[in-house]
Design a protein that fits this description.
about 375 residues, alpha/beta, Aspartate Aminotransferase, domain 2, Aspartate Aminotransferase, domain 1, eight-stranded mixed beta sheet, three-stranded antiparallel beta sheet, 18 strands
């Protein structure tokens, strides 16, 4: 039986009909930009996360660029980022004119290494840093990152593109962040019907600046206080997200049940777990395996029609596109080691027991253990 890596059509009963009805209503009213759906979504997300402010935008990459610009990061500034992340984290730094410095990761949680980060701050004197909450959890040393940055005047932006629904010590990971971003790309835990994103902040001034920058730098309709760009979230995306939000807890619960099944039945493999204190959202399941054996496993999965991912297949510092812009790379080669060894099996809401079993049986016989 074929099992896709992700199935975007596992919607709750009635959701598609509700969406078609809502789309028709918005079309009849010509509500395309802004309006009650957008303001309603931002209010809903604040209630869901406990964040003080939420500003919707066009996509998760724009969310990062808006956060950097709102914090005053620009030409000549240095920004620290993890060496293991999605390319958008790197390119957003370049796109605001700043200089990226990559910091290697800790293999215990696959997040940016805190001790190397401290070293990088002392050496490179960054104005800001982007801490990426990868794989549906975050760094075991999250509070240390926040406290150290506050004490050393480093603006900490938290890239929570994969982290919607993640909690730390019972609270949303977005709640206590200075600036944090989320992506609503359709494959995310809470996905839109296209591209969309948002920035959360606890700072009133940042919130005002975020809203202006994402709307051409406007102060009033034809008065401009800065050079921004067009990053407005559409009413259609906001409406779709509002329909999905009441179901997100069930979607996460379903994903986490699959994660538990994988960990239980694939205990002989090196299956990653979130650090203590985190409740993961089941966005991705990470197996680390011998890089020499991974190609054979991938071939076997392809032959069986089972989807998989390698998230992500390369470190930032090793990318061809990074070379003209990379200021420095701090640390060793853990990010490269991760990219060579990670395998992500299918994981999406409402997977059936037979689908889970098919994946488990395909992974069991050939997988070789990961050697750190």
């Amino acid at each position: 039986m074929a099992v896709p890596f992700i199935d975007l059509k596992r919607w709750e009963p009635g959701l598609q009909a509700a969406w078609q009805k809502k789309a028709a209503e918005l079309s009849e009213a010509a509500q395309f930009i802004g309006g009650p759906e957008v303001s309603g979504l931002e209010a809903d997300l604040c209630r869901e996360t406990g964040a003080r402010h939420c500003v919707g935008c066009a996509n998760g990459t724009d969310a990062l660029q808006l956060a950097l610009r709102a914090a005053g990061v620009g030409r000549g500034d240095t920004v620290l980022i993890p060496d293991a992340t999605f390319w958008a984290t790197f390119e957003c730094v370049v796109n605001v004119g700043a200089d990226p410095v990559t910091v290697d990761i800790d293999m215990k949680d696959l997040q940016m290494d805190f001790d190397l980060f401290v070293q990088a701050v002392k050496t490179h004197k960054p104005k800001a840093a982007i801490l990426v909450h990868l794989y549906g959890w975050a760094s075991a040393r999250l509070l240390e990152f926040r406290e150290f940055c506050a004490q050393n005047q480093v603006i900490l932006i938290e890239d929570g593109a994969q982290a919607f629904g993640v909690t730390y010590k019972g609270e949303s990971i977005y709640k206590n962040a200075l600036l944090s971003t989320v992506s609503f790309y359709p494959a995310k835990v809470l996905g839109a019907a296209g591209d969309a994103g948002a920035v959360f902040t606890s700072n009133d001034a940042y919130a005002e600046r975020l809203r202006s920058l994402g709307n051409h730098g406007r102060e009033t309709h034809y008065s401009y206080g800065d050079v921004g760009w067009n990053s407005r979230i559409s009413s259609f995306q906001a409406a779709f997200l509002r329909l999905g939000l009441p179901h997100v807890a069930a979607r996460i619960a379903s994903r986490v049940e699959t994660v538990k099944a994988y960990r239980s039945h694939l205990s002989q493999l090196h299956c990653m777990k979130p650090p203590e204190g985190f409740e993961e959202n089941g966005y991705l399941f990470c197996i680390l395996m011998d890089p020499a054996q991974r190609p054979d496993m991938e071939t076997s999965l392809k032959e069986k029609g089972i989807g998989f991912g390698n998230v992500y297949p390369g470190s930032m510092s090793s990318q061809k596109g990074a070379k003209p812009y990379l200021k420095a790379a701090v640390g060793g080669d853990n990010a490269r080691k991760l990219s060579a060894s990670v395998l992500n099996p299918p994981l999406f809401p409402y997977m059936t027991p037979s689908e889970i079993d098919e994946v488990v049986q395909a992974l069991r016989p050939k997988a070789a253990p990961f050697v750190a």
